[in-house]
Fold:
Amino acid sequence: ISSRESVYYPGNQAVDFNFDTRWSSAGVPPADPDPQEYIYVDLGAVYDIDQVIIRWEAAYASEYNIQVSDNGIDWTTAYSISTSDGGDDYIKFDLVVGGRYVRLNCMTRGPDFTWGYSLWELEVIGLERFYLRDGDSIQSAITAIGGAGIIYLGSGNYDVDPIITIENDVDIIGLDNSTVYVKANIVVTESASRLN
Structure:
């Protein structure tokens, strides 16, 4: 976080799934220019992120952007808005963005609030990445990501049986080059010939 109002409103309270706690940035006098504040989340691994939900307290940002980074240093802007009206902002990215860190940059205060920024929760939605090399077991990758994630295939040969077993029990939802999608135990392979 860039700042906090007090020890009672730390950054971790924006990601604790508790709607009775919140993060609040340091306040600035109403006559001062809009404060530039941020809060970011470390997801612990690289995910393919497609949605963010911001649950604002009364002190919302009318202008902000969301950035994503693999390393916490180099940031890519995935979304920006200058007309937020507070409440709950449900954001769906135009394109899936990969990253481990997600940062909310608050730039302009809402017109009815004159101090800092405050939010109940910052929620990030995405799928974990898992990379396979030649000879790796697809089934072990599915187990490692807990049944939901994206597995990227390198060139090579992969064990077919776990895929066939799972596919017999579910509907195929789509195809993509060099990728196996796993979501709620649904597995999608790029092509049958790839795995035979």
Residues 6 and 26 are 7 Å apart (CA to CA). Residues 138-144 form the longest helix (7 residues). The longest strand covers residues 88-109. The two ends are 50 Å apart (CA to CA).
